[in-house]
C-alpha cells in the first residue's frame, strides 16, 4: 500500500529486521540522547539485538554517537542521536498558488529551500518546472555531498489510497493525475523512494514526525489556504494516516455547513470552503489571485462588511475545528496555511467559537492544545520529506 509507514508483514526474517530497525530509529527520534541500554529497556529488545542494529545504523549514517553518560553503577553508554549530516530527503508541495521545495535532514532541519509563487498550469508543465527547481535545489552547498533518500510530493487534493494518483485537485482543475509518472519522465532526478500525498496529510505527518519531544497521541492539522483540508496522524513508533475508502478523510472543506448556500468549486452548495477559504474570500473581496489577500484585508480593515466577512470566515473555521473535535477527537489541533496571515481577525473568532463549545458535550473543563503556525510556507513540503524518511526507515 502506498504511503504506509509500518513494516509490512511478509512473515520472514526481513520483516523482523525492519521492525527492530525502525523501532530503534523511532525510539531515538522521539527521545534523542538515549544509550543502547536505555533503548533495550524502552523497546524490550535484547541488548545484543540493539547493539548490532545500532552499529549498522551508525555505519549507514542514520545514527551518530554523542556524549558518554554514566547511569547508576553500570558501564557508561554513549548517547545516540539521529545523524543529521549524511542523508537528506526532498519534499515538494504543488500548491494552488505556487511550488515550494525543501531538502531536509533526518532531524527535520531544512537545509535548502525554494519558493516560487506562480500558480501551476497543467500537470505536465508543472512537473517539468518542479523537476528543474528540484535539480537546482540539489546543487545547494549544504546538500551536494549528502545521500538523497528520495522525494515526497504534496498535492492540493485527495490522493487515491491504493495508488499514488491525485484523484482531484478542485482548485487546479486537475483530475486523476499520475504526477510522479510525469516527474519520472524528467531528466536527472534522484533515485530513492518517491511518494505522493495530499498536502494536509503531508503537513500533519511532518508536524507529528518531527515534533519536538514525544508527540501527542494524535494530531489534526487544518490547512487553511486557497482551499481547506485536514490531515490526521496518530500512532507511536509507526505513524498512521487514515485515508478512507477513496482518500477523502480530512476533506473538511467540502463538508456542508450551510445547506443551499453559495456554489463551491466541487459543484455542491454551502461547503465550508464557500465561507472560509482563500478562493472564497478573494471572490468576495474582488482580490486577484496574484495579489496578497492579507494586504487587501489590511487595507480595507475599517470597512464593516470586510470585518463581518472575516469574522464569519473565522467562525466557520471554529465550527470546522469543533466538528473535528467531535468526530476524530485529536489530542492536539494545529492550524496552518496561508489564511493564518489574516492573524487575529480570522483566528480569534475561530478560537472563540471552538473554546466556547469544546466542552459542551462532556461538560468537563478540558482544553485541547492548539498550535498556530503563522508561516507554514514549507510545512507541507517538509512533511512530504518526513514521509520519505519514515518509509526509508522501514526499508534501510
Ligand atoms: Zn465543495
From TrEMBL:
InterPro entries: ATPase_NBD, HTH_MarR-typ, ROK, TRAM_dom, WH-like_DNA-bd_sf, WH_DNA-bd_sf
Organism for this UniProt entry: Salinicola socius
Family as reported in the entry's similarity comment: Belongs to the ROK (NagC/XylR) family.
Record's signal peptide: none
Keywords, in A-Z order: Transferase
Molecular function GO terms recorded: DNA-binding transcription factor activity; transferase activity
Keyword Coiled coil appears in the UniProt entry: no
Taxonomic superkingdom: Bacteria
Pfam family for this entry, one: ROK
Residue intervals of the TRAM domain: 47-112
The protein, known as: Transcriptional regulator
